[in-house]
Amino acid sequence: MSKVKTGIVMMNLGGPASLDEVEPFLLELFADREIIQLPFQRWLGPFIARRRAPRVRGLYAQIGGGSPILRYTRAQGQGMVERLDRLSPETAPHGFYVAFRYVQPKSEDALRAMAADGVERAVAFTQYPQFSCSTTGSSLNELWRAAGRLGMRDAFEWSLIDRWPVHHGFIAAMTETVREGLTQFDAAERDRVLILFSAHSLPLDVIDRGDAYPQEVGASVQAVVERLARPNPYILAFQSEVGPVRWLGPSTERVIRRLGARGQKQVLVVPIAFTSDHIETLSELDREYGEVAHRVGITQYKRSPALNDRPQFLDALADIVREHLATGRPYSSQYRTRCPGCENPQCRQVLKPIGADLRAPGQPAGATR
Amino acid sequence: MSKVKTGIVMMNLGGPASLDEVEPFLLELFADREIIQLPFQRWLGPFIARRRAPRVRGLYAQIGGGSPILRYTRAQGQGMVERLDRLSPETAPHGFYVAFRYVQPKSEDALRAMAADGVERAVAFTQYPQFSCSTTGSSLNELWRAAGRLGMRDAFEWSLIDRWPVHHGFIAAMTETVREGLTQFDAAERDRVLILFSAHSLPLDVIDRGDAYPQEVGASVQAVVERLARPNPYILAFQSEVGPVRWLGPSTERVIRRLGARGQKQVLVVPIAFTSDHIETLSELDREYGEVAHRVGITQYKRSPALNDRPQFLDALADIVREHLATGRPYSSQYRTRCPGCENPQCRQVLKPIGADLRAPGQPAGATR
Closest partner residue to A191 among B234, B338, B361, by Cβ? Predict the structure, then answer.
């Protein structure tokens, strides 16, 4: 294999690829204080993880025995670097490296593979379009820690793409998934379909710290509906809340119940903050909420397809990286803006950033801001 | 005066024009169950209003003895109709009518004046860029009730402009206020200024019902920063929370405290959901939070100017109405989408809408969606 000049780390949550990985995945998830803060976490985290494991294994069994997120992330990475080699020959050859947060391949795996490939310039590319400290923030913190554990603090020069909530290519691809989703309804009824955008929720304590996520999700929704330019009503709701604390609403499940009670018959649910199918789409949106919808009288409950390996989305991924590389900037102006309420000193670091000075006067913040 | 063909109702909260109007204003505000729901409201509302009145009178005394919102709304209306008469001669002459929610001129005043002017076609134009049931929703419900009380249910054919969170003219004008705000800082330090967008908060119960407001405010912020294209960090926070219930965060005041504690020296606060100066900008943002900022060590705390009667904003208002009239549609596709958790049967009505059918297939939703 020829030496890789530009290595792109595809950061995402990940999901268990097999049923055996479910419990280890949950153990890691519930141990991460950057995403979940529990009292007596060392004891309570494993307790909750082990208690939930059988049920979650059952959910994964229903969707084919594991999460397809690694397959899709690889397809996204492959499509992206092929395009980048054509679009940006000066930074080629490009390689991609998957870094999941709670299952393999993890940050260490990505870093070792990058070293083996002789990568010079590294780009940490979040696969979450909208920034949250609990997703992109946690992944980046872990990436830098992993580099420290491996003694690879100086191995690469880094820059990062930390958010892309309204990137034109992302919005174009998302809008196409909505259009495709709408074709599942009779043409005569298509304009009556309520479009229910659904994003993963966050505990209100995270919101109150000043997490950028709700603002950026709101912007993504607006950009999609503007581009869609259809008369369909739409609502943004938040899914997957767990545990006793209060989460950001409105809750997707409760919205579905209420829409049904009101006589809404057609609902298209659109995952606006995930790019690949995984348990929150295939199990929670499709099966769990689908059953709720059926019970409350929504006769046509459909979901728009995830971006997965759609060529238009691969184009968008390549374009986001190309635009980022062209700016020569190490990170967006927003990345260094810590949440006002944050008390985690690890946040918002960059290991060994490329040379450009973010604060250079008059520099526009760029398309990946 | 020549007969007015198109009457445009400028709907807003309003504020007491003199100190004598403060208590009546608060009495009306705390009696409105569409904005505040209290136990034993008939008794507790007046109790709270009377108890707050002296302090609020003091605040109005500090900002010149009353709210300037009527003066600005009239200037906005005047500038808007002058432009519309030029831009849209086929719907001219245009007249504007102010309908405040809790002080005069109220909906009745607007409706009576419209009848006196011989208005044929009426447009209810919210002056809140982002839709919330507690602002635009409450104003519209009151407008229809007032028409009922006056026996004017059939007096006019109505259409309505219920939101314009990312209208290009509004975003252009807002972005200019931010640029102007930044000129208050030394050029050498301008890029370090943290831009703190601040919008009025809402109780979480309203959010959980499915109010569109946070999504639309998020979209406005994104549109402004994209257009601004500057490296400044920014945060969206929410102000003016009162009482014992939990409100949408992060709280503007708490964010200011935390920024100061962290050593942030320059902050520009930007009112993103108000179009005119009133007590929330002149007193709360400028004085109250200004004192907080000073105490926590923010050496330069400034506010961007409100849109008020800036010509660019008058252009935007005229453009929003012109585009709306050109669609021939009675309301945006979103207006009829009731909050999933709403239990107020009054919501989302239109008294006597103009003829076009919203559900006509394939109709784009238009710029004021």
Answer: B361
- Distances in whole angstroms, Cα of residue A276 to Cα of each of A28, A235, A279, B369: 21, 21, 10, 29
Q: How far apart are the first and last CA of chain A?
A: 34
Q: Is some CB atom of chain A closer than 8 A to the CB atom of B61? A: no
Neighbour-count burial for B168-204, b at 16+ CB within 10 Å, e otherwise: ebbbbbbbbbbeebbeebeeeebbbbbbbbbbbbbbb
Reply yes or no: is the peptide bond before residue A214 cis, omega within 30 of 0: no
- Asked if B327 contacts B366 with a C-beta cutoff of 8 angstroms, the reply is yes
Can you list the alpha helix ranges (DSSP code H) found in A63-96? 69-87
pLDDT single digits (tens) A319-344: 999 999 999 999 988 999 999 999 89
CB of A152 closer than 8 Å to CB of A352: no
Quote the minimal CA–CA distance from B104 to chain A in Å: 34
How far apart, in Å, are the Cα atoms of A5 and each of A35, A89, A92, A156, A327? 33, 10, 6, 11, 17
Shortest CB distance from B258 goes to which of A255, A262, A340?
A: A340
Please state the pTM of the whole predicted model.
0.94
Residue A263 at interface with chain B, using a CB cutoff of 8 Å: no
B277: phi then psi, degrees, rounded to nearest 5? -65, 140
Q: Is B343 on the interface with A (CB under 8 A)?
A: no
Q: Is the dihedral of CA B323, B326, B330, B333 positive or negative?
A: negative
**What distance in Å separates residue A261's CA from the closest CA in chain B?**
9
Say how far apart CA A38 and CA A191 lie, in whole Å: 45
Euclidean distance between the first and final Cα of chain B, in Å? Answer: 34
pLDDT of residue B365: 37
Reported as a single tens digit per residue, the pLDDT across B2-54 is: 689 999 999 999 999 999 999 999 999 999 888 888 888 999 999 999 999 99
Rg over CA atoms, chain A? 20
- The answer to whether the beta carbons of residues A97 and A8 sit under 8 Å apart is yes
Q: Which strand (E) or helix (H) includes residue B172? A: helix B168-182
The interface predicted TM-score (ipTM) is: 0.93
Measured between alpha carbons, how far is A89 from A364 in angstroms, rounded to an integer?
24
Distance of alpha carbon A276 from alpha carbon A72, whole angstroms: 6
Stated as kind and residue range, the H or E segment containing B283 is none
Separation CA A272–CA A216 (nearest Å):
11
Please give the Cα distance from A223 to A38 (Å, whole number): 36
Q: In which region does residue B274 sit, left (phi positive, over 0), alpha (psi from -120 to 50) or beta (all else)?
A: beta
What are the residues whose beta carbons fall under 8 Å from the beta carbon of A64, sequence distance 6 or more?
Answer: none
What are the pLDDT digits (tens) for A219-252? 999 999 999 999 999 999 999 988 778 999 999 9
d(CA B159, CA B325): 9
The C-alpha R_g of chain B, in whole angstroms, comes to: 20
